[in-house]
């Protein structure tokens, strides 16, 4: 059994980790920390876990996370970088669901996240946890930077096009839409039911932290300079993410060839579903599951890739468990066979 | 023109007052106070008001509310009682949308609201603003206690039955359901979209402040001792309130007589719609309007009254404007002719 | 492996059976029938099942359901009674999720469902599939009448009180609220998003088919004549059911004794969670799971029982799988360990 | 008083016309037709209109629409073209909310709408009712083709850029999102609450009827050939439309100049609100009102225009009333001063 610790179990990625790990056959939940909720049974905060998770939150000062085999950080940015060095030194593997290790470039990190990076020496060692594009490195990793939710959809959607050199990398557009859980479990007026229900809006159009992460990764797949316009929007639904990606073809290719390209790319990916050409994937077809689905469309020389996922599963905690499975030599789908909840 | 001031314009009853008063033909919006938002144009906080309300919030210390003819308090409990005495002394009429003057009994107020009452001498003078049951007193009032949202539905639903001595006043049950805006515009986790969407629950079953208010008012209509079980629930919708009222008949009466009783009672009430016997009123049929609709059902000796309203209009700000109209000698429906928004 | 057939796989209880059975370790999905969708891959209709269910719908005329070990009817009322006799004769077990076999009294069935019963001889043999109250009979059953969703909550909530002779059985009130999926997957204006979102209403107050079913079952638990007022309402959420039950105590009992009574009653029930006295269960704490949660409240001599479940799982398909497990000698929770999806 | 007839009052644009016209000071509602609902009081179908609209639906065979001054067609495509010639001949003005007269080119109409056009001779005479771009022609019009909802946002957003020759007309992208009411009040599974709530998807990506309408209109504003990629999506909200428009600048211009261009263009437009540069307009800021709001963003040489409106008001019935006002010499905002419903 893998002994698992979770730092910061009171947010949505934390409770989602608990939902998934509670039924994972090879996992023993060992410690869940929260400074604020020390002593509170986890199931008192999340009644969905009553009878399934019997742990209580413990203060980070008391919990001995070095007894764990792996520790997930489901925390705000800045927490993992403070605690990861000691854990790694003690032989504990670390998976950070926040951004501390996503950007290889320290200056870019500090510019976008407005905090100094306290262990830049780990940036090189950290492995970016986008399984489908980085599986081998993940298997040997000790420190995982779990990808952002939006970047997961943008990378898996644009990758085959860029890798094949088919599109103008300098003119990519990603018009993305996220459910409200992406904003986290924080007491804020903007995400109250009465503010965000029955409403739709864009946000952060001037600049979003997921842009540098995505551009840096996409740049790995092409020699052209990547330029990306990324426009995030907020959808009145709890879970779900839909990215509408636009790329301009620079050479002639048929729809059938395009489709074949994507199908070949993801033939072995258990959690990427390439739907028939011209399909309209729905976010609900992934609700609660680790599947990401995508479909291709075409208008003249414009390729449109529609990508959907559950932002809390494949976009966060599910992907983190997928990484954990690989790091411990398990089948990457272990404990992730949930069928999406529809309706 | 009636010069109107609003204290506490940043909550939902505040912005709803602004929506209604911005198109009221006899009103001149004169001052809107908010300590925290001093100087901020109201329309910057509520973009729905862009081009319609040109005032900025002003600090309560700077705003001279004594220049107003009437001041609405759309504030938490405790604010109106602090400022009302000076305003009344200056000849300004006061309408409090909170609970400061709803309970005649000081001890009951202090028990339920956990704060001392600072001007108990005004309690006797305050007029309870439930127009359909108290119209004449409201016309002459200088200080209005605007009813709570739940109490409005419970009183208008039970009143004809109690007044006619038809039911067991000691066994009333009100199973009530409210949209989330009833919880106000406060940053709290429990009313986040991701917590209260796609969910339904009861709350405050052990005791809710609207119980003593309702019981005290209902007691005015009957000699029997009133006993009320009131169970509030939270519905994943922004606006709307549905009360399902149960009362046991103590004498024989036909459905036709029951229906006639209610129709006669509310024949002159422009904002109470007695629907045909056996109807199922929908909250959306009142969305954004000042109408309250009700319908009767019957099972043996049990009468069921279904009552719906928009909790922010007839349940709060619309009722307050209705009171204002009466206090200034206007038709009580002035500025309140909005048709409900359906769909 | 249990070979499973599903008749009527195009509705919500059908797709929910597929979601659950697709990951059930002892089940082999063998046939899914739909006259209208003959030949269509199931996953084309329900993209959540892509990669998980590879069957296509087959016409009932072609499918040989006698090869199955058990057949679920996820159909409108009237279908199971037409096909059950032949299946039973062929040694196939039958679980009907509709009402064909729920009422022992043929006349009552025909009065409420407006169709003649075509195999009344099976009514006596049919076992009512409310596991927690009927476990032993279910183990030996060949024909299961799976309970209605509302009746499940009302029975599990009222049962301990009636069995202990604590309450007035002649004055029970159930004020119940259901998510929209309870209305099924039928093209109807009333359940369009634009009609039922941001809205709340009662329906069927004059009489609902779940009343005779519930009264007949409750009558088994008490010698007093049962009288039940049942008021269903529609909540703008997809899944979830919340029943607020009112019963008047006829003898003195403390809150602690009441709580102990319920805890003892359901001590061995893996899918009934008796929450601490005074709790407010939320429907979302059961979303997608087979758990039913309940909590007790008290006002004088009135007991209020709050009950929540997912109407499609414990209220329908999950309960049916629970029955199947018992009928085939498996642990009743096999394949039903999904943790509720929160948020 | 303007005598108004409405053909097809049972859909969402019909009931929205009724909501607006019921409080329009210069309008007398005279006839509402529906073949299917002949004799039914309108308020029985739409309880929001109880006490406000006392008409009953009448069969089109019985209603004498020639007694009206103007007739609105809130019907499916094909109905207005059948009845308009006779009404126009009788001197009645006609406003069609469907597409019958939106496309000047008969062949294009027939290609996209799959029905023959029965009065092509009226196409030239029909005036496109987008008030802000066509005000003078509308004043003198006898037959109005009321614009589609999406085309209204796309035209008002792209127009100033195209007219000023600032952008590449051959590379326009419109990523648009609509509330579910845009799909109309039709019994269909895809728009059931349980299918479209808590979900997000694109639809009609391969080709949508609003593309030829928009392209034809945009082509009027530029000499360059217009090419438009239009991607519609469905948002789980009742009302509201958000268009995210992308256009590539072909000459140098500052953000301040861009902003000034839009502000100058719409300075006199009471219903177009140019928000400060970099704003994020929310659909709810227009809910129930006739306002369209837009804001500009910039990334390098890409201009992003965010446009919101209520699809049933400015996107349909409100715009039609705005046209009617102009056709009858009234102030264009008469009866359209509703403030948006927020929250």
TrEMBL record, chains A, B, C, D:
InterPro entries: AGPR (IPR050085), AGPR_AS (IPR023013), AGPR_dimerisation_dom (IPR058924), AGPR_type-1 (IPR000706), NAD(P)-bd_dom_sf (IPR036291), Semialdehyde_DH_NAD-bd (IPR000534)
Protein EC: 1.2.1.38
Main location: cytoplasm
Family matches, as CDD domains: AGPR_1_C (cd23934), AGPR_1_N (cd17895)
GO molecular function: N-acetyl-gamma-glutamyl-phosphate reductase activity; NAD binding; NADP+ binding
SUPFAM superfamilies named among the record's database cross-references: Glyceraldehyde-3-phosphate dehydrogenase-like, C-terminal domain, NAD(P)-binding Rossmann-fold domains
Cellular localisation: Cytoplasm
Pfam families for the chain: Semialdhyde_dh, Semialdhyde_dhC_1
GO aspect biological process, one term: L-arginine biosynthetic process
Top-level taxon in the UniProt lineage: Bacteria
Pathway: Amino-acid biosynthesis; L-arginine biosynthesis; N(2)-acetyl-L-ornithine from L-glutamate: step 3/4
Chemical reaction(s) catalysed: N-acetyl-L-glutamate 5-semialdehyde + phosphate + NADP(+) = N-acetyl-L-glutamyl 5-phosphate + NADPH + H(+)
Function: Catalyzes the NADPH-dependent reduction of N-acetyl-5-glutamyl phosphate to yield N-acetyl-L-glutamate 5-semialdehyde.
Stored HAMAP family: ArgC_type1
UniProt cross-references to NCBIfam families, sorted A to Z: argC (TIGR01850)
Protein name: N-acetyl-gamma-glutamyl-phosphate reductase
Source organism of the structure: Rugamonas brunnea
